[in-house]
Amino acid sequence: MSRNLVVLGGGESGVGTAILGQKQGYTVFLSDASKIKDPYKQTLSLHNIPFEDGGHTESKILIADIVMKSPGIPDTAPIIQKLRQRKIPVISEIEFTSTHSVSQTIGITGSNGKTTTTMLTHHLLANGGLNVGIGGNIGKSYALQVAESSYSSYVLELSSFQLDGIVNYAPHIAVITNISPDHLDRYEYKYEKYIEAKFRITMNQTEDDYLIYDADDEATANWFKSNTTRARLVPFSIKRTVEKGAYLKDGKSIIINIDDQVLIINTEYISLQGKHNYKNSMAAVIIAKLLKMDELSIRSSLKTFQGAEHRLERVLNIKGVEYINDSKATNVNSVFYALDSMNTPTVWIVGGVDKGNDYNEIRELVKEKVKAIVCLGTDNKKIIEFFGDVVEKITEVGNMVDAVNAAQGFAEAGETVLLSPACASFDLFKSYEDRGRQFKDAVRGLSE
């Protein structure tokens, strides 16, 4: 008799899991409290997978043997509470898929840099000849790829929400890029709970696995004071020398020492510039070295890599003003990296849905780098109160076109307009991608 798999959420991870579940012989039912997008509905219909949207039919859900919950659904949702009361396992796509795949995985998490590190790692490994897929929080779902493809390895970008739902999943190589307060609204506003969620990535690793981490990161260092992992530790740092791992020397060279083999890479030859990107590059190169990629291939791949869309993405230079789209910066720590990499006076477009931001860590940077602030959100009070005595020019707008026009009014030749919101996008936009694309469209409109 086949087991009942209920999938909650009809997005990329949900639909992929439903297809994989059906292929593995489960009786599948998919339910979404919101409206499922038409392409996903068509895919489900094509595979004859029953589904519903706009609400949950409890009688069809509570008979599940196992439930896959999409990462966007919080544990506090009533349907999840009812499932837990009945002791029905609720897991993530990552957990479900890994139990039906023999491929090795590289799991990458962190508050910032995980998308860039995931993409760069995939670029290095694919160019090095590995049969490797990319998934998790990026591109096609991991589940769909396991159902339809035959990659020997996967590079997975993993959010804390996805890691909350793992039980036995263990990546062969895990990366924690860094940890800073983010999504605290999902963790009862307790930073330590969010940190614990990130470290779930290593909880099932063995002595044959690796954990790559930022040795400069305070939250990571604090976790290691009272916790351990069985994985082999490989640190990277831009502040100090490390014996085994990677570090920055004199600001000009990255030194990577893996298994007593040293690789030296001049930072000039890395396509992604900025200290945070040196860290992302270190993590990716360590992975490539652990998986025995050719050094020449690693060097050429670092040169040719194009960064992630919406992450410090250069849009246009108009009348000497550089416009940069950093819409993916949905927390304060991301903005810190963005502002830190600015070398000219900056007009900063900021705002959205505040997730419990503490702006203290960027106050001095804002004072040093920012000449004007354009607030783009439905509630800008906190930003105005915090930076009102630091930045002389602050204005509020209600849409992206007005934001870009206001920024253009403040910026002079030789300066930069930076969209780096520090907030979620759901007050005025569908997603951070929608926000970034609207910014790029508005900037292009200036040049027409």
UniProtKB/TrEMBL annotation:
Query: Where does the UniProt annotation locate this protein?
Result: Cytoplasm
Q: Which GO terms describe its molecular function?
A: ATP binding; UDP-N-acetylmuramoylalanine-D-glutamate ligase activity
Q: Does the keyword Coiled coil apply?
A: no
Where in this chain does the record put each Mur ligase C-terminal domain?
310-423
Pathway listed for it? Cell wall biogenesis; peptidoglycan biosynthesis
For this protein, the record's NCBIfam families field holds: murD (TIGR01087)
Put simply, this protein is called: UDP-N-acetylmuramoyl-L-alanyl-D-glutamate synthetase
